[in-house]
Design goal:
The protein is mainly alpha-helical. The protein has helices at residues 3-9, 12-18, 29-44, 51-58, 62-68, 72-92, 101-118, 120-127, 137-159, 168-189, 195-209. 72% of the residues lie in helices and 0% in strands. The longest helix is centred in the last third of the chain and has 23 residues, at 137-159.
Length: 211
Amino acid sequence: MNIHSLVARQSFAKLERTGGDKHAPVSDKREAIMNAALDLFVERGFHGTAVPEIADKAGVGAGTIYRYFESKEALVNVLYRQEKQRFAERTILEFPKTTIARELFRTMWMRMAEFAVANPKPFIFMELHHHAPYLDAESTALEQRLLALFTGVVTAAQARGEIKAGPPRLFMGLVMGAFVGVIRSCVEIAQPLEDADWVLAEQCVWEAIRA
């Protein structure tokens, strides 16, 4: 499925009109709590969301939340790890590691675009919110593993002379900063990008880092 058809199914414009993603059918109270927390954390931020508000949106009593999660901090960390793992699986599963850097980059960019368009709220939650103050050791470790993986990809490409010399983290920051900026612009004006726009953005960012 291409990006355009994904946009047609669930665009940022629709996100603004409906107030959020269409979640999968709720199978239990824990899932209802997770869904409600995601909606509210995106809308109001972690610090602007109270546990009773999550409970009310989930249709459960406030005490029920504490049967599944020790605290609001525990809840946000479980949610953060769940969405980070989903994002990682979509972008790097069966990643063609032996391909030249140009193809690796194109593949990664377009997979990220597909995920962000199909899952706007999870992506906004992960990338447009500042999580550091409340991330626990397990969440931080997950983030570091992903960072190490992508650092290895960049380092190998640099060794082959395909990417400019420099700190790998600098280039990863440039790429993700540009990608998040594109998503932010879509959210702010409630207008998705066409396929050609994503391709153009990918080409521009690649030109910035290639050797």
